[in-house]
């Protein structure tokens, strides 16, 4: 998909796109990221939508992973196939529950994005879509979460061998607007980022 609300383009041609309002289960990137919970047994929100659209094979793989390594701590990520989804893979990561900001939530949230893009790169994946991790049931304030999400991906993307495109697929207009604003602010800090910011057609 090439619809985007805003885009950052780096000198080497890699891009970070923000799309929304949109449903991540319809994404045609090679992998999508799931905002899971530690049990990996499915839950509400985007987690439920991904398992519903992808079918039971994703849950079976998640159960095998938990049997092998135990429940997944916040900040970590694992990969499964995408079942019936257009995406070939799902990367499951567990965001922090927001408890006021003094419980290492920012560090844990950044780790979700870093681990997910690292796993994608390790699997030779070229395009990857994220939802807004932790800003639903887990209660992370969306403007803060957007800043952390974008900064972490913008820092990690240049080091990737395979990943060339990252999309943030944002379910509602308020979340989409928060991410566009965070991207614009980040692009105005030349020390933090060297990318061209543009608003898109959608
Ligand atoms: P968390 O528990 O990490 O907060 P949630 O699923 O409750 O996860 O919410 C995370 C974000 O995902 C929220 O912004 C929510 O609106 C969004 N979301 C829910 N369904 C979808 C979907 N189908 N595609 C993309 N984002 C979604």
Summary of the model, kept short:
The chain has helices at 45-54, 56-69, 105-122, 142-156, 173-187; strands spanning 6-10, 15-19, 31-36, 77-81, 89-94, 127-130, 165-169, 195-199. The chain is of the alpha/beta class.
List the helices and strands and how they pair.
Layout: E1 6-10, E2 15-19, E3 31-36, H1 45-54, H2 56-69, E4 77-81, E5 89-94, H3 105-122, E6 127-130, H4 142-156, E7 165-169, H5 173-187, E8 195-199
Parallel strand pairs: 2-7, 3-5, 3-6, 6-7
Antiparallel strand pairs: 1-2, 1-8, 4-5
Helix pairs in contact: 3-4, 4-5
List keywords for this structure.
5 helices; globular; 8-stranded mixed β-sheet; Leucine Aminopeptidase, subunit E, domain 1; alpha/beta; 202 residues; binds adenosine-5'-diphosphate; single chain; 20% strand
Verbal overview:
The protein has 202 residues and is of the alpha/beta class. It has helices at residues 45-54, 56-69, 105-122, 142-156, 173-187; strands at residues 6-10, 15-19, 31-36, 77-81, 89-94, 127-130, 165-169, 195-199. The chain has a single domain (6-199), classed as Leucine Aminopeptidase, subunit E, domain 1. The model has no long low-confidence stretch (mean pLDDT 95).
């Amino acid at each position: 998909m090439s619809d985007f609300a805003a885009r950052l383009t780096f000198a080497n041609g890699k891009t970070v796109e923000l799309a929304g309002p949109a449903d991540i289960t319809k994404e045609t990137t090679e992998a999508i990221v799931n905002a899971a919970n530690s049990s990996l047994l499915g839950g509400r929100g985007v987690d439920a939508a991904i398992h519903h659209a992808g079918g039971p094979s994703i849950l079976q793989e998640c159960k095998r992973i938990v049997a092998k390594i135990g429940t997944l701590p916040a900040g970590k990520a694992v990969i499964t196939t995408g079942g019936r989804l257009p995406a070939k893979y799902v990367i499951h990561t567990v965001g922090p529950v927001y408890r006021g900001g003094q419980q290492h939530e920012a560090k844990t949230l950044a780790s979700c994005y870093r681990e997910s893009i690292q796993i994608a790169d390790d699997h030779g994946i070229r395009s990857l879509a994220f939802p807004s991790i932790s800003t639903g049931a887990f209660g992370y304030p969306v403007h803060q979460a957007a800043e952390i999400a974008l900064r972490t991906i913008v820092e990690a993307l240049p080091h990737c061998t395979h990943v060339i495109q990252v999309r943030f697929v944002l379910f509602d207009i308020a979340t989409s607007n928060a991410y566009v604003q965070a991207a614009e602010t980040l692009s105005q800090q030349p020390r933090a980022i060297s990318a061209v910011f543009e608003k898109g057609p959608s």
